[in-house]
Amino acid sequence: MKRVASLLVSSLLYSGCAMADGSIVVWMTDSRPGYKKWLETEAAAFKAKHPGVKVSVVQMSPNDAYLKIPAAAAAGGLPDVIWTTYGLAPWLDGMKGGKLADVSDLIDRLGKNRFDEDALKQWSYRGAVACVPVARTPTYLMHRADLFKKAGLAAPESWEDVIRAAQKLNDPANGKYGIAMPGKTDFSPRFAYGMILYSMGGSTFDTQGNPIFESPASIDALKVYKQLYAYSPPGSLNFGFSEIQRALAQGRVAMTISNPSSMATFQRTNRDEGSTLALALPGKVNRTIQNQRGWCIADGKNSQDAKAFVEHLFSTSSFAAYLDAASISSFPVYHDQAAYDQFQASNETVKRFPGATDFIRRHTVGTMPGIDGVGLTPKSGDLISSGQIESAINRMLANDMSKQETAAAMQKETLRLLN
């Protein structure tokens, strides 16, 4: 174990942590290939304007980042720039070797009034904006509108509708299933559970910051999760973000719960123009997951070069390229109409599903399950990186735990993390 740990630290020293003057390291904590291609293109463009600065891009999954960030800090410091979710900002800032730079000067240069007020509020920590907000990533029910129409099903407006549709469209004998539900211990079960819970009017914390995983709404959300899982393909215990999107794109399932990047995956994989996807937000209230993403900058000798690179990423051409790489998985919280118009005119997913962006624009209210009611605190990173929600759901599905036992496990582990 010590050898593994030392190898991890050595690799981080080589490829992950801040480098010598004249070089900055950027961690993209999203493993989709479009992001790395975009960043490497922008790194080359930035170097052409700043010959003395080299930008190295390191890409990883969010789950890998939860392990590598503390190891990087322990090895001597964070990378210069990190793409991450807002809930991790205080976690980064609080760990030894992890202090974040003040980005208020950068936000002022970019134009504070060009950011959504809600985004600046959600990223606020200790009286300042912790990192530079870029986009919000919502979660919805994705459903095959063509299959619904063929089966005589209306667009689902309640979770009872979703369950009935999953049952009707489930055809295991022909390799077709009603819905793909994630069982893997990546972030997907957290978001699927959270979306169901939020749309029922529930939360994971009350307004005083107390965890309420054993509330009636949470129990009901877990009940719906288990009911839908019965119509998910075999092997769904190993389904995470990529697997549920792939199952939808390949036509194995009629629905899934994910962010709108499912539509981009569908567009690339399923070229049958008669196959159509639609977004839905079943439930009592217009509320879903809203995972804010942005750029955090380490407080170190390279922070000014790092700020200059992030500022470059907000230029109109670069921001339009970012929107194309994200391909409607994220909705911008920074307003550059010229960049957005370029994206709308050129992106193939938007062209195929023209109503998607309007739906996303109208349905973005929400926050992150596991930290709602808590906000940004040094504990918020632990509440996300620990995976207590997804682990409990995985055990519920693997061991046929009751919804009450699952809720109790979430509650117990969350209280432990808070104390």
UniProtKB/TrEMBL annotation:
InterPro entries: Bact_solute-bd_prot1 (IPR050490), SBP (IPR006059). Residues 1-20 form the signal peptide. Belongs to the bacterial solute-binding protein 1 family. Pfam families: SBP_bac_8. It comes from Bordetella pertussis. It is found in: Periplasm. One of its GO terms (cellular component) is periplasmic space. Keywords: Signal. This is Maltose ABC transporter periplasmic protein. Its main location: periplasm.
